[in-house]
Amino acid sequence: MKLIYHLLAATGIALASASVWADKPALTVYTYDSFVSDWGPGPIITKAFEATCGCQLKLVGLEDGAALLSRLKMEGKRSRADVILGLDTSLTGEAAATGLLAPHGVELSQLDLAIDWSDKVFLPYDYGYFAFVYDSDRLTAPPTSLRALVNDANGPKIIIQDPRTSTPGLGFLLWMRQVFGNDTSEAWKKLAPRILTVTKGWSEAYGLFLEEEALMVLSYTTSPAYHRHVDKTERYRAAAFSEGHYAQIEVAAKVAHSPNQALADQFLAFMLSPEFQNIIPTTNWMYPATRSHTALPAAFNGLVSPKTTLLFDASVVARQRKIWIREWLDALTD
Amino acid sequence: MDPRVAGRAHRLNPFSLLVRDAGWFGVVAIILLIALVGGTLLVLLTASPAAVLATQLADPYLYRVVGFTVWQASLSTLLSVLLAIPTARAFARRDQFPGRGALLRLMGLPIVTPVIVAVLGIVAVYGESGLLNRYLEPIGLSWRGHFYGLTGILLAHVFFNLPLSIRMLLPAWERIPGENWRLAAQLGMTASQRFRQVEWPALVGVLPGTISVVFLLCFTSFAVVLVLGGGPRATTIEVAIYQALRFDFEPGLAAWLALGQLGICLILVVALHRWLRAQPVSRGLKTGQPRALGFDSVGQRWFDGILLTAVCGFVALPLAAVIWLGLNGPLARVLSNATLWSAAGRSALISTLATTLALTLAFGLTLSARRLSTRHRQQAAEGLLLAGSMTLAVPPMVIGSGLFLLLLPLGLTFDIATALVAIVNATLILPYLVRTIGPALMNSGARYQRLCLQLGMSGWQRFRLIDWPLLRKPLGFAVALAATLSFGDMGVAALFDTTGMLTLPVMLYHQLGAYRFNEAAVTALVLIVLCALVFVVVERLVGQWRS
């Protein structure tokens, strides 16, 4: 066994030294795959950052935010990541507990989020709100509050994502918890008959919705902006709920043991620059995190803008997540 | 070790005995397989504390999940295989109608379609607002409100597995010697007697393998069950494993669940093989087709015609929906994207690597199993075949994560990601190869073992002259299936790095994740067309290769 390890390690060194980017310093950023895809911010950001840093930006696309966290936990101190980008506030509590991340040291006054932000480890780069998107051709009077959605026995059928396998799914679970508190279990039971199905991830749910299987799907307040901007249609809209909407704040953090601390700092600072922030709306379909960006694209006009922003503290989510998922399971399975 | 050398030793331990009887090829294959699965499970088991595990494994919810998993998998398997028997029989009886070859190839497509694409296709036809409901509702027939749940799960599983079962069962009829049919005619057997006495003995050689592959596929089904199951009541063990690895990061729990899954599958599959014991098919000539003997009645012709139309329609409709959506998408834009073609190239590379590896392992296992069975070590032979088909019960996420943790100390995980994905894919396709090559080789062994001994024929010569002609057709299908499965499989690419591992299925997911549903439809079309192409080419190349 040991011999095999040595042999493989030798091949590894040979491969690594032969790689073309050995001459320039490289910054490795772990992120989720819709960030790195051709349609995401990845390609543009790589170009912009490499133009100023004299380095190579290596984006590693993993399935989603949860995959990012589990990869970090798996690799621990051996991680090759210098920066991780793409966790949201329902995962940051557990990410902080790994002890693998270092303070960002960035001035937070430039942030312009829906809430105050003072976290010293996680630096936000964009944010959005969960919302039910509906098809206005088929649903003319969508519910105006989460309570109305839950209580109306004749209400529209919805598709949601599984909180055990997807971040939006977990987001909705937290949203329900914010609105219904200790009565959440009852609320889930009331809502159950109108949940058409619960999918593994966002893509399955949205795909079914576009095939008109249900009238509403759990997505984001910014989803209609995509349809306006690219499909040129007003058909899909987000329903505004009077209790407020649960926020998703996407953050990045520096890996403590990374040998490229200076480059990582430079990247985090770049993340809040107008160059980065300006492309967020039409590539990641989220709101920029700072004031420094130029005006939002026209497609963002008139989107639902929640009066109240709902958000649990990351430590509460880390502590309660399993208990609340269990509550959800029990409510929907008996 | 050279088996002859081992044979000369006076006292042999069980291992040397196995090497002697099985040959080194199979022994190496089985050791590699056990090391891969065992090693990955072990590294996960040691990665999390045992104290927490005990309470989690005692959770009654977990047992409900196990119960549901077994229940839905059994029902899905029963439906798929029960429908497949008469359909395969109809295909065997109607061996000359125009379009038969195309229809049989169609049967290879559902299983290789990426799950999310297939699900969207199925829903477009059979869903709540699907095509059928739209046309049937005005005449009072509708299943609105009933699709999501067990109905949806069973429908999708039958869509994936009925065609696969048909293709796996069909060779049974081709193996029935003409003498048997003539004898049946002489004895004036009725249709049901013919089925029991002539067809069943041939069928029972391929049935256990087919049932176990389908069962394992349904047992480990994940996204389909969640999406069409209608809620968390429909949860399989695989969901719990994904959750444990991904969201909760409890590798130990994931490994225990995987072991449990493997254990349950193993018990059920072994029981099945005990119950349906393969009987040697008598040797004979390929003359005297049943049709020439007057077995073919008008009623039978109608029955076969209706059945074939219904089954092919059922399978073709969702595929047609996928193709239709693709043709209506932005074809030019997607096709002119260079990324698409480099992704296709990478998919082809992974598929080639995975198929080569799996084929090597499969030949190791099946040739050794035959050697063992001709030396009257039936149980060891069955054990080898079983091991080769059980890898389907181990979730790719578990093997992938285990390999990842195993190789982590070397810092190699980036550089050899392609190889890792290919290895995981190889374990996924191995069962199809073993279960298709296995029966054909065993059969050729049972028929020609004595002849080969008499002629002193062995090794390559025997393989080329005796086995190959019997093997090439089923092998052509199996290799084509394996290559396309690996080609269209998202597998564990996302576990490593989707930027560097941009395969076609990964690209499809990227498009979906970016709201590009219409572009994804075109990618899905390209994927299906390429799969069909790979299928036809490989099946032709292998299936008609004259030795």
Description of the molecule:
The complex is a heterodimer of chains A (334) and B (547). With 334 residues, chain A is of the alpha/beta class. In chain A, 41% of the residues lie in helices and 20% in strands. Chain A is built from 13 helices and 12 strands. In chain A, helix 7 (167-180) packs across helix 13 (314-333) and helix 8 packs across helix 13. Helix content of chain B is 76%, strand content 0%. In chain B, helix 3 crosses helix 19 (396-407) and helix 5 (60-93) packs across helix 9 (150-174). The longest helix of chain B has 39 residues, at 417-455. The radius of gyration of chain B is 24 Å and the shape is globular. At the A-B interface, helix 1, helix 2, strand 2, helix 4 and strand 7 of A face helix 7, helix 12, helix 13, helix 19 and helix 23 of B.
The parts of chain B where pLDDT drops under 50 for at least 5 residues are none
- Average predicted local confidence, pLDDT of chain A: 90
Oligomer kind: heterodimer
Order of helices and strands of chain A: HEHHEHEHEEHEHHEHEHEEHHEEH
| Uncertain residue ranges of chain A | 10-21
Give the largest interface.
Answer: A-B, 60 and 59 residues
- Tally of extended strands of chain B? 0
Categorize the overall geometry of chain A.
Answer: globular
Q: How big is the Rg of chain B?
A: 24 Å
Q: What percent of residues of chain A are in strands? A: 15-25%
Report strand % of chain B.
under 5%
Following the backbone from N to C, one meets helices and strands of chain B in this order, namely HHHHHHHHHHHHHHHHHHHHHHHH
**Overall helicity of chain B:** over 70%
In terms of structural class, how would the helical and strand content of chain B be classed? mainly alpha
Number-wise, the strands of chain A total 12
**Helix percentage range of chain A:** 40-55%
What's the main sheet of chain A like? 12 strands, mixed
How far apart are the first and last residues' alpha carbons of chain A, in Å?
Answer: 49 Å
The separation of the N and C termini of chain B measures 29 Å
User: What gyration radius of chain A follows from the Cα positions, in whole Å?
Assistant: 21 Å
| SS class of chain A | alpha/beta
